[in-house]
Amino acid sequence: MAPSASTRKRSRAAVEAEKPATSDDEFEIPEINDDDSSEDEDPSTSDEQSEDDEELSSEDEEGDEDDEDIHSDEVPSEDERLPKANGHVNGDASDEQSSAEGLDDDVKIVTGADGNPRYIYPEIDPVYDSDDTDAEETNTIGNIPLEYYENYPHIGYDINGKRIMRPAAGKALDTLLDSIELPKGWTGLLDKNSGAALNLTAEELEIVKKLQRSEITDDGYDPYPDMVEYFTNTVEQMPLSSAPEPKRRFIPSKHEQKRVMKIVKGIREGRIIPRKLQSEEADRPEFYDAWADDAPPKPGHIMNIPAPKLPPPTYDESYIPPPEYLPDEKERKAWEEQDPEDREKNYLPRTHKALRLVPGYKESINERFQRSLDLYLAPRVRRNKLNIDPASLLPTLPPPEELKPFPSTCAAVYRGHEGRVRSVAADPTGLWVATGGDDGTVRVWEIFTGRQVWKLKASSDEAVDSVTWRPTAEGRILAAACGNEILLVVPPIFDPEEESKSKELLSAGFGYAANKQQQQGKKEAPGTWSKPDSDLEEDGVVVTITVRKTVKYIAWHRRGDYFVTVSPDDVRRAVCIHRVSTHSSQTPIKQKSVTKGIPQRVQFHPSKPLLFVATKRYIRIYDLARGELDKTLKPGARWISSIDIHPQGDNLIVGSYDKRLLWHDLDLSTRPYRTLRYHDKGIRAVAFHHGNFPLFCSSSDDGTVQVFHGRVYGDLMENASIVPVKALKGHKVTSHLGVLDVDWHPKQPWLFSAGADGTARFWN
Amino acid sequence: MADAMDVDSDAPRIQINLSTRDAAFAVPLQTVRVQTSLRRFGLSTLVNHLLESPKPIPFDFLIDGQYLRTSIDEYLTSAGLSSEKPLDVEYVRAQVPPTYIGSFEQDDWISSVHLSSSAGAATILTGSFDGTAQITSLSGQVFAKTMPYHTQSVKAVTWVDQPSLTSSDPASFLTAGMDRTINLWSYQHSDEPPSSAAPLSATTTYISHKSTINSLSYSPSTSQFLSASSDNTIALWSTDSSLLPTVSAPQPTSFSRKRRRTTQKLPNTEKKGPLAVLTPHTAPVSQITHATDPTAAYSVSWDKSIITHDLVTAQVVDTRVTQHPLLSVTTLPSLNLIAAGSAARHITLHDPRASSGGQQTAVLRGHTNAVVSLARSPESDYLFASGSHDGCVRIWDVRRVAFSADTDSEDKTSGSLFLIKRESGVGKVFGVDWIRDVGLVSVGEDKKIQINRGELMADVTVLDQTGR
């Protein structure tokens, strides 16, 4: 029962000690709050509360009255105040109690310690629903050490700002007694929050101990459990199973054998290379080229591009360079004076006595950085080489065998001409072939036998430059250009009826021309039509047309009434159109100057009234009906030698002296559709087959005739297909001239060529 | 019987079945066992032994359509045959390469040749590019020469009545050429060549064609002849002038006028027109020949076709289109085949019968230029000769050709049996003819008549010992 008595005592002392504390509070609060109105309420409430607290705490703490005494002794100034305060408070308390019990007046006026009246308001009952009396009393002083309060009766403030009084300290005897019979878990420490003795339970102590031993504090954790021997080294005498040993234990594994065989097979095939033999290892070089392969290529990513190698160091980068590499003073000075960017080398060779004396390289970081920048900023690109088989780029051409028939061998050689054979032409009936040559003769040959059946000595000094047959079914007329004369001949090899018909056709114009001349009189015609002399007439010549300059080429119109001649020497009247039925000649193209080019060849369009005039570089197409220039083709050749027009009229081939054969599609463009280079020397003549065969050919000064298969499709969308099928070789090149003219058989795939070697040839 | 042959009894033997298509050489015993090491010569000796012929005849042996050129053993090995099985062997009279007999030169290129085969009066009729025809004896003497009725080259000649010593009737022949006319000439043959051969003059001139006449074919049984021309027509004529219409002479051309002036005046001839003109071809008709049946004829043309004509109705019986222009044709009657030479350097074989399906063709390759003349062998049904512009005459054996069903496969080729070159070495061959009495005669650009002859019985012994 001693404790209870002590508590009572102490509670009294606590109340006493508390009162001055409140007064202290009153002083302190205004420093924090400048509010006057609230100022007065607080002490009262705090008083009330402290009283209640006092009641509660008194039960727990006992024997602190001695402490109070000690306090009062130590701080006399406070003690002086205390009695006054106590008196007031006591009175107040009684008043309060009475007023509270009486429930009459609301404000009491009390004279404060300073003599001023003090209003004490009745306590407001907040009527809390909840009971917070069990709320733990907490000290709010925070982190301030308790020593600071040693001189005070309180040890801090609770949440309401009331002082938490120091638990009454027991008397020495009590302490002694306490020490004699130490409570369980006594530590001799005071709880910081409550100021009471801090007792620890056995568990807590244990935890503290464990912490001190730096053990796991977890309860029940055994750091040293007994070992469970899952595996033992003791060999059991008895087997686990009494079953007999399975057979597979002592027969070789098939799976393994399979794998071994796989490896053996790989070794045999060379896919797997077994570990190298010792001897090979011994063959390793004793010294390695340290700079040879310092960074072996990573077999890593496919996009990995190894950095370009730096050049290996040279002598002057050595730490002991040979003396000749060391710069002398002058060089050193020059190097130092140079701008760093202009320096050839960014270092000076220096010599050191030993490798260990070599200082750190100052520029190392800088150089590394520059190198990294180089590698980073200059992206390295893996350049894929295009591995294209050149053969695959070529268009797939059908084999020549599929394009048969075409001429392939020389079937006959027409010998007889002295000098070059200038021109060759196959008769429209397909039985005869006419040639004209440098010896001034026109000869007609039987195709297969090569028999010369007729010969005309047209001139003794001039060469026959061109022979052509009138391309019609009736009327066997051969036009031959000899010097500045054009002979229209009916060779006497045909049926008499046909011969006389042809002659009539030719000579009918004489009368017409005579009439016309009488009418017109003066105007000078470009050509003079006349009867030949009797010798020639007997040989079959019916008409002679004399023009001013040498005629180089004759081309007939398809109807056979007109033919056109070219005399390149005559600048103004190079192209003449002659009309057989009226014996008249005219120059359709009035040419003012040479600037337009000297005509080389002319051709009539096979169906339209168009005239193709090939000059050295261009081909001009004149519309004869309207009398104007229709189109100009630009083959791009330097010097056009010959042209021919496809029988359907939409395509044109051009041969040039610069070895090129150009195929023009008139519908496509003024530029060539295809350029064929198959000749080693200039092309002399080109010719389309005018029958049913899609063939054309070119003859050249290299002595060959190239035969091409050139199919033209009716569909405008489809381009012509051109396949070279055969190079006909046989003509000899004499004084740099090869094959001068070519012509096709009108109905068969047979070719005739006229060579500078004095022969004409028949190819089938 | 067969044991008579054996010398070495250990040698491997094979049983062979001998057969022949020639009744003259049929042997009584047809199955013998012989050593497999035997070659052609051994087998030939065996057959001669079996025939008991007084003079040995060289034989060639065909096994499975091929000539035996090795020993039987080697043949069996190469053919993969067993010597256990009996072997069928066909034997034929051996062909020996015709040897060069001689050649006679003329003034100009010779375009055509026809041989007369009458007994004792073997003559060579040739047409020349100078417009004349000549009759030459085998010794090279010129019996007769025609007057220049033809203003241009003669391209075709043929005998109508072949000369003979027995009959007193004059012989006659036809010539045709580039001047578009056919002339009939009569010729009195005498054994002794006239010391001064008066030129012959033509009796009848046949006029129809408008262009070169390329070929003539006369059929004795109907007395009719055919002419093929470059004007795409074929004309049918008769030697009986009374059957033909009389036509007027064509107006002379300037060419002929000029020529006439330089030569002597020629006697006038009868001018006759044709019985019929056939125009089935669309290109120059290059050659025509009568079939075995004289009312039928085959013509070939540049339009690549072989046309069978019925001469009675002048209708086309059959048209075969080949792939190349054709230049020459001949028949192989016993085999029912037509051989046609083309401008594409080969010879094709056709069966003209409708029942053949029309497509049985073989291709004979070997010439290097146009094949312009064909002549069948007088001795064998399987042989024929071809003259080509490449300057060679080749002799072909049909048996060496494997027939194929389709014309397109030109793989079925065969080399020729023999090759005869021009003795002069140059120039084209324009015509060949082949009869038993004269041999193989070829004419050409070298202006020469070249005679080659296959060796007959007389020289067999000598030849046999050489191993052929």
UniProtKB/TrEMBL annotation, chain A:
The UniProt record lists the keyword Protein biosynthesis: no
Keywords for the protein's UniProt record, in alphabetical order: Nucleus, Repeat, Ribosome biogenesis, rRNA processing, WD repeat
Chief location of this protein within or outside the cell: nucleus
Composition bias type Acidic residues, residue spans: 23-71
InterPro entries assigned to the protein according to its UniProt record, in alphabetical order: BOP1/Erb1, BOP1_N_dom, WD40/YVTN_repeat-like_dom_sf, WD40_repeat_CS, WD40_repeat_dom_sf, WD40_rpt
Stretches the record annotates as Disordered: 1-114
Superkingdom per UniProt: Eukaryota
GO cellular component: a single term: nucleoplasm
GO MF, any single term: ribonucleoprotein complex binding
WD repeats: 414-455, 739-764
Pfam families according to UniProt: BOP1NT (PF08145), WD40 (PF00400)
Chain ranges of the BOP1 N-terminal domain: 149-407
Localization annotation: Nucleus, Nucleolus; Nucleus, Nucleoplasm
Gene Ontology biological-process annotations: maturation of 5.8S rRNA from tricistronic rRNA transcript (SSU-rRNA, 5.8S rRNA, LSU-rRNA); maturation of LSU-rRNA from tricistronic rRNA transcript (SSU-rRNA, 5.8S rRNA, LSU-rRNA)
Composition bias, Basic and acidic residues: 13-22, 72-83
Keyword Metal-binding: no
Function of the protein: Component of the NOP7 complex, which is required for maturation of the 25S and 5.8S ribosomal RNAs and formation of the 60S ribosome.
Family (UniProt): Belongs to the WD repeat BOP1/ERB1 family.
Assembly, per entry: Component of the NOP7 complex, composed of ERB1, NOP7 and YTM1. Within the NOP7 complex ERB1 appears to interact directly with NOP7 and YTM1. The NOP7 complex also associates with the 66S pre-ribosome.
Name of this chain's protein: Ribosome biogenesis protein ERB1
UniProtKB/TrEMBL annotation, chain B:
One BP annotation, GO: maturation of LSU-rRNA from tricistronic rRNA transcript (SSU-rRNA, 5.8S rRNA, LSU-rRNA)
GO molecular function, one term: ribonucleoprotein complex binding
InterPro entries: NLE (IPR012972), WD40/YVTN_repeat-like_dom_sf (IPR015943), WD40_PAC1 (IPR020472), WD40_repeat_dom_sf (IPR036322), WD40_rpt (IPR001680), WDR12/Ytm1 (IPR028599)
Keywords: Nucleus, Repeat, Ribosome biogenesis, rRNA processing, WD repeat
Keyword Repeat: yes
Family named by the database record: Belongs to the WD repeat WDR12/YTM1 family.
Protein name per its UniProtKB record: Ribosome biogenesis protein YTM1
Organism name: Orbilia brochopaga
